[in-house]
Amino acid sequence: MRLILSHRILFLCIFMCNSISVFSQLRSELKVAPDKVFSAMIKYAEKEDSVNLIKSMKHIDPLLIRFQQQYDRDFKLIIKEDLKEGSSSDVLIVINDLIYTDIIDILNGVKNGEIETNKGVWIKIAYKDYVLISPYVVSVDNGFEQDRLLKNNFHKLMSIHSSESGYLSNGENSNINSDLLTIMIELLRKCMS
After folding, report:
1. pLDDT higher than 50, residue 100
2. Which residues, 6+ apart, have CB-to-CB distance to 67 below 8 Å?
3. 60 pLDDT above the threshold of 80
4. Segment (H or E) for 32
5. What angle do CA 95, 98, 101 make, to 5 degrees?
6. Who's near 100: CB < 8 A, 6+ residues apart?
7. Alpha-carbon distance 136 to 130, whole Å?
8. Which of 79, 83, 97, 120 could form a disulfide with 161 if both were Cys (CB 3.0 to 4.6 A apart)?
């Protein structure tokens, strides 16, 4: 009985280590920070420069593959189809959705334990992404308030993870962290739908 339990625990540890390393490994394969690529994609879409827009997507191919597998969204195909139709506003919407997906992917990774270390760094990366879609969030109904709430929550999360040994116990930090992540994910979904 103990042997079976030991094997199950070992399998669980191996599985968790592999899933953590897959997330980090995928991101480490990127030669350019995704927020830089997303920013360039927005500029190219606004200028209707489809050649450079498509070229820039190559820098985030591992992310695009992950999002297709994880979220069943083929952003590269959708963007190419919208470019063929000549609709730069549709392309911008898809790029915003791509950035939103990256934010959700990171926040879910932190929340679900897929990201174990450097959570503060990952939250800052998600925040950099959010700054790119913030103008879109502000443009929707009640967007200014939603935007302010999301930014405040990002700052709270960064504060929690920049000082894990702060005045709260780790258990309290963990509960606040999980609650904030849940609120942010739901708020982002609401803003982007």
Report:
1. yes
2. 73, 75, 98, 101, 102, 105
3. yes
4. none
5. 155
6. 133, 188, 192
7. 10
8. 120
How far apart are alpha carbons 156 and 191 in whole angstroms? 19
Residues 6+ apart with CB under 8 A from 80: 54
The one-letter amino acid code at 5 reads L
The C-alpha torsion from 159 through 164 and 170 to 171, rounded to 10°, is: 30
Q: How far apart are CA 114 and CA 182, in angstroms?
A: 15
Cα–Cα distance for residue pair 153/34, rounded to 1 Å: 22
pTM for the predicted model, two decimal places? 0.80
Which residue carries 């302010």 as its tokens?
148
Lowest-confidence pick of 28-42, 80-94, 155-169, 178-192: 155-169
What gap in Å lies between CA 105 and CA 18, rounded to an integer? Answer: 17
> Which has the higher per-residue pLDDT, 55 or 143?
55
What is the Cα gyration radius of the chain? Answer: 19
- Nearest one of 75, 28, 82 to 56, comparing CA atoms: 75
